[in-house]
Amino acid sequence: MIERTMRAIRVVLALACFASSTWAQTPRSKSADADVDAHLRAALDVPVQRASLQNGLRVVMSVSRATSTASVCAVYQAGVRDEASHEAGYAHLLEQVMRRPELLERPLRQRGGTTSSRTENDFTAFCTTVPAGELSFAIWMEAQRLLPSLVDRDAVRRARPRAAVTWRQSADGTARRAGRRRLLELTLQGYRRTEPDPAAAVAAVSDQEVEQLRSFFQSHYRPDRMVLSIAGDFDTDTAMQWARTYLEPMAAAGVAASYVPPPVVRPTSERYLSFELDEGTTPSLFVGYSGPEVGSREYRALTLIAEVLGGGVGSRLYTEMVERLPLATEVRAWTSQDQGPAVLGIELVPSHGVATETLEKGLRAQVGRLGYAGPTDAELVAARRRVGMRLLKSLQPNQSRALVLGRHELLGGDVRQLGREFDAYASVTRVEARDAMRKWVWRSPRATVCGYPAGWHQIGGTGQPMQRYHIVNSGENLTVIASRYGVTLEALVSENKLRKNQPIYPGDKLKLPAGARKPKAGPAKPTSKPAAAPAQPAQKAAPKKPTSKPAAASEQPTHKSASASGRSSKPRGSIKGSTANSPQGKARAPEPKQPRVHVVREHQTLSGIAKLYGVSLDALLRQNGLSKRRPIRPGQRLVIPEAAKKP
Question: For residue 595, which of 577, 614, 569, 618 has the smallest C-alpha distance?
Answer without folding.
Answer: 569
